[in-house]
What does this fold into?
Amino acid sequence: MDQLTIDSPALPGGISVTHLRVYDSTGPDGLCGGSAHMHFACTEAYFVLSGEGAVQTLSGQGYRETPLRKGSVVWFTPGVIHRLINLDKHLEIYVVMENQGLPEHGDSVLSFPDEYLESVERYLEFASLSSKGAVYANDLPAATRRRNLAVEGFVALRKRVESEGAGALHAFYERAVNLMRSKEPEWRQIWESGPTATIRRTEKYLNSLRGASSDYLSQSAIFAFPPETEARKLGFCGTLRPYLPEGIIADAQDK
It folds into this structure.
C-alpha cells in the first residue's frame, strides 16, 4: 500500500475561488459591467452573494441573457463568451473555476474587435496582460480600456450571431486558438501538477479504503484563508480577491 501524506491544501477538486465585485462603471453600450471573454479549458460557475445583474453569453446556443440575483447559481463550459452586467451596481459573486492555476495563467481571451486579435503582441498590448499571461490590469484606466474594447467586440459578435447564427463565432474561435495555442504546454503542466494530482490523491484514498487501511485518515488537516488585508486586484469583470492556493491569497506579481 502506498504511503499517503496530506501534501497540498488545495481547494476541493483543484478548483479556484474568487470574490468578485463587478465593475459599476458604464461601458460603451451604456451598460455597467465587466469585460466579455471566454476560456479554453475551464468551466466557470457563479454563486451570487448580493445585488442584481445578468450574464450575457454567446455560444453554440446563440445569444442568451441569464438573470443573476442573490442565491443564483449559473455555470458554463469552455467556449462560452460571457459578459457580466451590473444592473444595480451592487453585484457581488463568488466565482468558482475549474483547474486551479489555469485561469490565473491566461486561460482566457477577450472578445476584442478583430483587428486586435491578429497577433499576440497587439492583443497583449491592449489586454493589459504581461508576457507570462497575468490576468490583472495595471490600473483602473487600463482595466476600463480593455473592458470597453471587449464590449465593442462582443456587441459586434452578437449582431453577427443574431444575423447569421452561431456559426458566426467560428472565425473568432479560430483567432482565439491561434493567439493562445503556444500556452498549451505550460497549461498542461499546471493541470497535471495541480488539479490532476487531486484526482490521483483520491485514487490513493480509495485504494487504502479497499485495503482496509485507515492510516491516511489520521493525516487529515484544516486550512483557512486569512482576512482580506491587501488591495483588491483589477480583473476582467471587476475587483477581485482570489483565494489561491496553499491557504494564502495569490501574489499579484509575476513570478
Notes: The longest strand covers residues 52-59. DSSP finds five helices and eleven strands in the chain. The domain at 15-212+226-243 is CATH 2.60.120.10 (Jelly Rolls). Residues 1-6, 246-255 have pLDDT under 50 and may be disordered.
